[in-house]
Amino acid sequence: MLEDYNVSKLSIGTLGSHSALNILKGAKDEGFRTVVVCKRGDEIVYERFRVADVIISVKSFEELADDKIQERLLELNTILVPHGSFNAYIPMEKLLKLRVPMFGNKQLLIWETSRDLQERWLKMAGLRLPKVFKSPDEIDRLVIVKFPGARGGRGYFLANSPEDFWRKAGNFLKSGVLREEDLRDVHIQEYVIGVNVYPSYFRSLLHDEVELLAIDRRYESNVDALWKVPATEQLQLGLNPTYTVVGNIPLTLRESLLAEILRMGDAVAEASERIAAPGIIGAFCLETVITENLEIYTFEISARIVAGTNVGIGTSPYAYLRHGENMYMGRRIAREIKEAAEQGRLEEILT
Ligand code: AMP
Ligand code: AMP
Hints:
The protein is α+β, with helices and mostly antiparallel strands. It has helices at 20-29, 43-48, 67-75, 84-89, 92-97, 106-113, 115-124, 162-175, 180-184, 231-237, 258-275, 317-323, 329-342, 346-349; strands spanning 11-15, 33-39, 54-58, 78-80, 132-133, 143-146, 157-159, 187-190, 195-204, 209-222, 243-250, 282-290, 296-302. The strands form 3 sheets. Strands 11-10-9-12-13 form a 5-stranded antiparallel beta sheet. Strands 3-2-1-4 form a 4-stranded parallel beta sheet. Strands 5-8-6-7 form a 4-stranded antiparallel beta sheet, with helices on one face. Strand 1, helix 1 and strand 2 form a beta-alpha-beta unit. Helix 1 (20-29) packs across helix 13. One adenosine monophosphate binds next to strand 6, strand 10, strand 12 and strand 13. One adenosine monophosphate (AMP) binds next to strand 6, strand 10, strand 12 and strand 13.
């Protein structure tokens, strides 16, 4: 596909959601034409902020894989930048077969969709992980019980014994929040008591460096609101925490934690080379919990831009330290694409 492209007239494109404003603004800052495939009714976001030169409206994101839409994107010499809505709304088989070139390493998007593969990757990198319980009957401490599919943490629950697990799972089945088949794919993780920290990195193949660009934490409903309800009422209401992401909050870390955070990014990138050469291309994020003993536990990895980097649109302290003013994840991605195009190395960063 790339051979038919006019490399001096590339567009950067993405789905209209998640971190599209970040990606499109960054592309414009680097001088690219931009194209967004968005759901009918959502055009207002991309019009109002003036980040999209071309808006393609669709009924559902899955239409990205339709021939008609792909042809249009190819005509515009588009390079797609994937984000969380790609694997949330487009089946993996369709994503893998897209003809429009995509920034990043698609093989690692597959790794990201499986908790078992993520765990293997993070262990390979030598990171500290919460203990995983193979069966509910082994639960011997506080655990968080997760179910497949990106349902925003709804239906997750905490349990501290096998009995507690089966009682809560039974209630969720009865109320219809969970289905029998969900129980088969349940993922049971030690619940680490600490604060959530999400460092976002950019791994540059062209410059052979892993940059730390932003750190955020999430604002989740209702878990971030429960403390406002006094304990007596919480007990009466039988409230359960849910983890629906509503937004993100920027964060800077205690500086003495940064050495480990930087080494973790390097180790994950190095392990990714062994999993699927050339490894991670571009953005990735680690989801961590840091305890009172300053131990960093990593419970998830995203092998692409995360919406938490939206807190850095314009700049963030860490992007500023590395690049000076006006650098952020969307722009960093576009800069890498621009440099690769100038050096005739585009095929190294696209899949
Ligand atoms: P959306 O396009 O908003 O449905 O998001 C697609 C996926 O990304 C879902 O799994 C969301 O839970 C996740 N997501 C969206 N926005 C954020 C955010 N601001 N922070 C963290 N995750 C997000
Ligand atoms: P996830 O769907 O894995 O991103 O988890 C949703 C939310 O649950 C996270 O943003 C954290 O607030 C919390 N969480 C997930 N795993 C753990 C864990 N092992 N220990 C403590 N909190 C967790």
